[in-house]
Amino acid sequence: LHLSIRRQRQMCIRDSLKRELRSLLRVEGRQLQYIDIANSQLTFLALEMKRQGTECENFTRYCEQGQLYEHVAQHAKTSRSAVKKAITQKALFSPNDARCQQGRVKRTFDSLFPVAAKFIYEQKDHEDGHSKFAKMLQAAEADLIINRVCGKLRRESNVGFVTPVHDCLMFLPEDAEVIKTAMEHEFERIGLRPHLEVKDLVTDV
User: Considering just the CA atoms, what is the radius of gyration of the chain in Å?
Assistant: First the structure.
């Protein structure tokens, strides 16, 4: 898929584009890079907790270090991938009475991070709460990635190309440091310092 820079500035790649196809994206024939936010969904949860005045230093620290899944996996005696699937693909966005909430991984998460667990429960403890909770985190992502970071780049930088995809940004390699710095700055403004890593889109499918 080849898109001219001029045309691409006017559009946004949708999340419906399959992950394995993203490595085929080109801008005027050139390969792209992206910034990976460690533990991104839980990092945006930490962001929203902070915004609402709920402090959980332990939870936030593991999110920032990119070690939260590993920490839970160690205590639950399972793998990182199993923890990520059990939390972000099941328990995090499921109703409070869903069966997955009683699984070993979720119970371990709750015992390690009781403040975060209580916040999640209370946010979903009403009709359609789990759906509204998901939309709340999506709004937090959009505000930081699109409104704050892309807004800052538009006002202050002259990058050749950048487009948001879910919770990350795609860009040309020569703009990597400018974009990473802008993202770090906007996270720091709200009191978070997550681990950010620039990756090649073509090899990291």
Answer: 18
Give the separation between CA 189 and CA 142, rounded to whole angstroms: 16
Cα 38–chain centre separation = 7
* Whether 153 contacts 9, CB under 8 Å: no
CA distances from 56 to 10, 53, 110 (A): 39, 10, 13
**Model pLDDT for residues 118-147, shown as the tens digit of each residue:** 999 999 998 888 999 999 999 999 999 999
CB atoms within 10 A of CB 55: 11
Tokens describing residue 189: 């403004």
Task: Indicate the pTM of the whole model.
Answer: 0.84
b/e code 110-145 from CB counts within 10 Å (16+ = b):
bebbeebbebbeebbeeeebbeebbebbeebbebbb
d(CA 137, CA 91): 14
